[in-house]
Amino acid sequence: MPGSSIPIHKFTSSSEVVFFTGAGISSESGISTFRDPEGYWAKHDPMQLASRQGFKADPQLVLSWYGDRRESIRGSFPNAGHLAITNFQKLFPHSVVITQNVDGLHFEAGNERVIELHGNIHRHKCLECGTSIKLDEAQARTLNFCTCGGSVRPDVIWFGERLSMEILNQAHAAIESCDLFFSIGTSTQIYPAAQLPFDAQRHGAYVIEINPDLTPLSSQVDLSIRELAGTALPKLYEEFYAGLS
Length: 245
Ligand SMILES: [Zn+2]
Description:
Layout: E1 17-21, H1 23-27, H2 40-43, H3 46-49, H4 52-57, H5 59-74, H6 80-91, E2 95-99, H7 105-108, E3 114-116, E4 119-126, E5 132-133, H8 137-140, E6 152-156, H9 165-176, E7 180-184, H10 196-202, E8 206-210, E9 223-225, H11 229-244
Parallel strand pairs: 1-2, 1-7, 2-3, 7-8, 8-9
Antiparallel strand pairs: 4-5, 4-6
Helix pairs in contact: 6-11, 9-10
Bound molecules: zinc ion.
């Protein structure tokens, strides 16, 4: 029931914990997000910039835009929410991060076992055969080709593309065995990711939502905290640290 206090006594260091994150935790680091009305999509046509068709029509436009996004991400830093997850992972060695964000800030914060549902903007792959291809930033801003002849593209999920089955299976495996699930800064509106908190609950996890805004999940979870991740997560960490040790 929302508003109740967390039954910390039910959890131990061997509890399996999932931190599921969305755009909100990145926006606390100053990164513009898809849903943000001031963000990129207000200024550009999403299909032109983030679809296979858009890339084929004008690869240079897409590569320049991703280059600009990476540049803005490089000027951003993990926030108190990301860093609290690093601390939580020391309390719960069997914890996993599942993120919808592509900015890599979880890695930068030292988070481990990070499952990136939508890819990573700093990585690249072949449009045709999917092979991972390493590029430096200067290379990444121009069109490169794989040995198969395919164009090299950012390794992120575009509109009209399915999530990788392998990645989704990893996420589902974590969710099926999890005892405690945090849904952090996600609107729970984009499927299939939006289903994950409900799946966790169905498998018996205690679900805590952290989001300043009401979402379709808010009334369903065990505890809904209407705060920013950078505010709520450090406090929750202190609470768990005191309760577990
Ligand atoms: Zn290829």
